[in-house]
Amino acid sequence: MSKWLEVAPLEDIPVLGSRVVDTPDTRIAVFRGKNDQIYAIKDACPHKQGPLSQGIMHGDSVTCPLHNWKISLSSGEALGPDEGCTNVFQTKVDSGLVYIQL
Amino acid sequence: MKLSMKEKLVLIGNGMAGIRVIEELLKLKPDLYDITVFGNEPYGNYNRIMLSPVLAGEKTIDDIMLNTEQWYADNGIKLNKDSRVEQIDRIKCEVVARDGQRAAYDRLLIATGSLPFILPLPGVDKPGVISFRDIADVDSMLVAAKTFKNALVIGGGLLGLEAANGLMKQGMTVSVVHLPDTLMERQLDRPAAKMLQSSLEERGLNFLMKHSTAEILGEDRVSGVRFNDGSEIVADLVVMAVGIKPNIELAQTSGLHCERGIVVNDTLQTFDPKIYAVGECVQHRGVAYGLVAPLFEQAKVCANHLANYGIARYEGTVTSTKLKVTGIELFSAGDFIGDENSEEIVFQDVANGTYKKLILEGNCVKGAVLYGNTVDGSWYFQLIKDGTDVSAYRDTLLFGQAHLGDSGHNPETRVANLPNDAEICGCNGVCKGDIVNAISEKKLFTLEEVRAHTKASSSCGSCTGLVESLLAYTVGGEYSATPKTRPLCTCTDATHDDVRKGILQYQLKTMPAVRDSFEWRSEDGCAACRNSLNYYLLCAWPTQYADDAQSRFINERAHGNIQKDGTYSVVPRMFGGMCTPDQLRTIANVADKYKVPEMKVTGGQRIDMFGIAKEQLPAMWKDLTDGGFVSGHAYGKAMRTVKTCAGDTWCRFGTQNSTRLGVKLEQLTWGSWMPHKFKLAVSGCPRNCAEATIKDIGIVCVDSGYELHVGGNGGIKVRVTDLLCKVETEEQVLEYTGAYCQLYREDAHYLERTAPWVERVGLAKIKAAIEDETQRKALLERFLISQKAAQIDPWTERAHGAEANEFTPITVSA
Ligand code: SRM
Ligand SMILES: Cc1cc2nc3c(=O)[nH]c(=O)nc-3n(C[C@H](O)[C@H](O)[C@H](O)COP(=O)(O)OP(=O)(O)OC[C@H]3O[C@@H](n4cnc5c(N)ncnc54)[C@H](O)[C@@H]3O)c2cc1C
Ligand code: SF4
Ligand code: FES
Q1: Which regions of chain B carry the CATH code 3.30.390.30?
Q2: What is the pLDDT of residues B496-516, one digit of tens each?
Q3: B534, B550, B615: best to mutate for the A interface, most A CBs within 10 A
Q4: What percentage of residues in chain B have a pLDDT greater than 90?
Q5: Of A21, A57, A80, the CB nearest to B550
Q6: Separation of B656 CA from ligand 1 center, angstroms?
Q7: Which helix (H) or strand (E) holds B702?
């Protein structure tokens, strides 16, 4: 059963940046957009498992720090000519707290 | 191993034709076969055509790799590289390689390419006599170019001229020997050949026409060549480029029917129905080809049959030729000599360096030679292939396609008029229709995108102009063809210089302010412009602008280099490369405490500790900074290291105290953010043990003072420094260095290192600014102001809690 897990207060995540979230199964990158949209994506690039949390965020995508693939944060898909996809998770913000659904 | 029920396909020859068949086959039936590939070369598959630009130093081997070993793995293909097949056992249906490996096949594909033809001359087996066919040949030419001076190329055809041009670019004096009296006689008529020869002579090549080689001279190594007329020439490298012959030995000894090449039918099948062959090793309807376009067509047909569709036929190819010497435009196709039944129309403008000739027979174009301007090459080529009746516009035929109808002169309208099946990229057989469809369906806007999606213009690159025209014509105003001044990134039309000027002129102090005034198209920029803007603002307003960590590449955000496994490296600063036993003990203790998996001494005279988890960084930095270290900035677009040599304290040749000066320079400059990385070195005498002449600034000490050299770097393209000036005291060295740093910081584009910067703006301008005392002092002052803010050690700050979120993962439990 999927359930909502509390992650952190919104202000702990930098705008246009991310935090690394360790869950029992996997490492997730939680990003915060310019207007406080929250995205959660598995912290492994579809190319060679680069840590997406360490990339530069712009709009609703992130550029992987290892070889510059652009990954959509909403779908987890590689953009442009590159092909591949990584998992994304539902998120919500409630009373200033960020939650993800596993 | 699991027993597979799939049929087995074995490919002999890991080259351009063979792998193209596999690629086409995977598109049609990815799961039909278990595929095994044998290749005699120790690499994945690479673009042989591009060996010429590699030799000329315009591309690297990495650039020309087509399929990495990962590609083979990803597609379940077993690759045996460096493994030559010696025998095909057609009874047992298996192949045997030199290393003893065997592979059984249900279908076999031979694509062994061709071998360079070697003239049977006395002395031809001497070291230093080579051909031009594979990476190994290019490597030996590059090595020879480093140690030897004189090269001789035998053969003035396409390959010979490309080899000669490349060797000349590598700094050798090159002569080309050719038997006929005009170059490329199989592709060019006389006037075009003469024009080509004179422009190559202008570039510095020597030609020995109508010379026939009699003997290769030399003892241990080639030292020269003697010709039939008795004359001799000195040469330490001889490149044999007199032609190729299909590589059929293996097929022949296996009993397959061969003539000049392995004989195949229109389905690329040999006389043994289980065995197919493609590429330069085959002979089809009497013709053996030596260019990639026909091979790629063969590959398509062959793949169709291997996939059991059985509907394609190969009927031969009309070929065209282009010479890949940067700056020379040359095109020829079809029959360009003609006979008594044909007419020729010619246009020649010697002063302008253009020449066009068309051969007509009946009302059709049979052949074309273009020199100087080849825009219409693909149109003529299409007319030849289609046998189009051109009587209606014969009068204006020579002026090109633009003159048809009312369409004006620009290349866009020319490509607009091409039919959809006109071939644009000859190497990859990509037609206009394919490109236009890809552009409109996949919404492509740049040349790179078209290359990625269609492969057009990705092999030899000579159709790049046409592809750009197609882009311009298909996406209209939205495409701006590589303009002379590039915009900073795709978010804006403003250039780096526009933005830098605007920041000062309009007092723009935040990123949103810059984006607003230059009408950025994206709200928060992209990975390219955010870094640049952050730096430009920091440089312009050193005491006011608050650095934006999220606009920095991860290395600068985490103050360490990210490694392929996501861990980081830690390189403490060691001023001038000097160290004490205590410092070394501190590093050793830290390495023990954090169980550092590997350390090494770097090329910049420091110590690197690898494999550190991000979470551990602040604690490790704490121990290092407590021991007196600061960050080495080995990760930043920043001032990196000052390398020093022993200097006059110890060295018997030393003229000045190079280590003391190195330490002072590093104390002055450390921490400075720069457009790109920035390295210094100080050598105690002109023997230059600190390699100062390939640094951004290199100081070479001499008896009477200090030489300041600038604009050097190692890396992919080595550039040796230019001498900026000579000064007398250490104080002056520091003053000039600070001023030079600031000039570079204020003037260069982000990610432009000093070497390309000096080449772009010219040494004269830099010299003028630095030698002028008022300007120099003002630059230095601005540098010192910005250093105040910059020399706050990022490691110490973070060791004491700054940016803690960056380094601490959040843990949630289910
Ligand atoms: C550690 C070190 C290799 C070593 O163990 O010796 C090194 C390691 C890297 N170098 Fe280097 N370079 C190192 C000295 C050099 C030198 C030698 C020197 O400084 O005297 C050169 C040639 C000199 C020069 O820069 O002109 C050098 C030319 C490059 C280049 C090519 C630069 C160019 O302008 O062409 C790159 C690529 C780049 O910067 O874009 C590069 C990039 C890299 C990167 C940052 C690659 C990357 O992006 O991950 C490597 C990081 C490894 C790591 O995780 O630590 N490294 N690199 C050296 C660190 C020196 C130091 O103490 O800070
Ligand atoms: C410098 C240079 C520039 C060129 N420029 C152009 C150009 O501008 N335009 C153009 O159209 N063409 C050009 N060509 C020609 C083009 O590269 C060839 O037509 C093409 O590579 C032929 O493909 P292929 O697969 O038949 O042979 P190759 O690409 O040569 O592949 C054959 C492979 O088979 C391997 N092999 C041979 N025997 C065995 C064996 N028994 N066991 C295992 N492996 C074996 C060889 O090592 C080789 O790797 C150029 C060639 C060179 C050398
Ligand atoms: S040369 Fe430099 S960039 Fe290349 S692998 Fe070595 S350290 Fe990395
Ligand atoms: S691992 Fe992300 S781009 Fe290579």
Answers
A1: 329-409
A2: 999 999 999 999 999 999 999
A3: B550
A4: 66
A5: A57
A6: 28
A7: strand B697-702
The structure tokens listed for B440 are 């409109």
What is the DSSP track for B476-520? GGG-----SSPBSSTT-S-BHHHHHHHHHHTT--SHHHHHHHTT-
Residue B477: the pLDDT is 46
Q: Which two tokens stand for residue B621?
A: 């930095």
Domain B7-114+246-306 sits in CATH at 3.50.50.60
Q: Are B22 and B35 in contact (CB under 8 A)?
A: yes
Average pLDDT, chain B: 90
Shortest distance between the Cα of A66 and any Cα of chain B, in A, equals: 7
Residue contact A22–B810, C-beta within 8 A: yes
Beta strands B173-178; B150-154: pairing state: parallel
Are the beta carbons of B36 and B83 closer than 8 angstroms?
no
Cα B454 to Cα B17, B47, B531, distances in angstroms: 18, 16, 31
Contact A23 B530 (CB under 8 A): no
The residue whose CA is least distant from atom 3 of ligand 4 is A67
Spatial distance between the Cα atoms of B202 and A73, rounded to a whole number of angstroms: 56
- Domain B329-409 of CATH type 3.90.226.10: no
- The string over A31-53, giving b where at least 16 C-beta atoms fall within 10 Å of a residue's C-beta and e elsewhere, is bbbeeeebbbbbbbbbbebbbbb
- ipTM value > 0.85: no
User: Which CATH number, 3.40.50.1450, 3.50.50.60, 3.30.470.20, 3.40.1260.10, labels domain B118-242?
Assistant: 3.50.50.60
CA B680–ligand 1 middle distance (angstroms): 13
As assigned by CATH, the class of the B555-636 domain is alpha beta
Structure tokens at B549: 């960590």
Q: Does domain B413-478 have CATH number 2.60.120.200?
A: no
List the domains of chain A with CATH numbers. 4-101 (2.102.10.10)
Q: What is the pTM of this model?
A: 0.51
Per CB-CB distance under 8 Å, the chain B contacts of A34 are 523-524
Distance B293 CA to ligand 2 centre (A): 12
Closest chain B residue to the Cα of A69, Cα to Cα: B527
CATH 3.90.480.10 domain residues, chain B: 555-636
In short, whether B697's Cβ falls inside 6 Å of ligand 2 is no
**Numbered ranges of CATH 3.50.50.60 in chain B:** 7-114+246-306, 118-242
